[in-house]
Amino acid sequence: MSFVTETTTEPRSPAQVVRPVLPVAAADLADGMAFGALAASVGMGVLAPVAMSLLVFSGSAQYGAVAVIAQHGSVWAAVGAAAALNARYLLMGTTIAPALTGSAWSRAGTALLITDGSWAIAQRGEGRYDLRTLRVAGLLCLCGWTIGTGLGAVLGDAIGDPGRLGLDAAYPVFFLGLLRQHLKNVRAWGLAVLGVVTAAALVFWAPPGIPVLVAGAAGAVAGAILGVRR
Description:
Blueprint: E1 6-7, H1 14-18, H2 22-41, H3 47-55, H4 59-70, H5 75-85, H6 88-96, H7 104-112, H8 116-121, E2 123-125, E3 128-129, H9 131-154, H10 156-159, H11 162-165, H12 170-182, H13 186-202, H14 210-229
Parallel strand pairs: 1-3
Antiparallel strand pairs: 2-3
Helix pairs in contact: 2-4, 2-9, 3-9, 4-5, 13-14
Membrane topology: Multi-pass membrane protein
Protein name: Branched-chain amino acid ABC transporter permease
Family: Belongs to the AzlC family.
């Protein structure tokens, strides 16, 4: 069976679209609070982190930039770190690009709403994506991430170490739940194990973001080969 990306055609009520998206937005709210507290702790204040979350809307890029700022790095170092951490979107974009329809502005707008969470929750298996869910998830995640950043920046001293409250674990737990829904056959389990082993082998010595990128590429290549053979 070939791997073809397409949108789903089943009609779904607004409640059916929003309900599964709420945990994603909640995870972004928690993660945003952690980022806001971290940004405030390195002297960025309140408005700068909020504006950054609204305009950049990328947790990995923003965390990377704040880490560079904390070390008094240059603007180019911050941009380079953000680009490396966001390289995974090249892979994610290639999987969903065939499903994007409409004008160039419409496709660009939808592409801007692609996040780890919205991309994952919009999957319907066998290369199919629900673009309506992706857009709703992207918008709610943007709201959750930006509001969370503001709360974290304002309440930074009260929040303290985000890891102490478990805020840094919100996204990993959420993605494990999403992954479990897709482990329906031996092929899916094999690709998941390949991704875990690849990331684990790189995480202790490769720069942040690279293990995820390489693991995703390994899974995509293996999945494509298995799909062609089938």
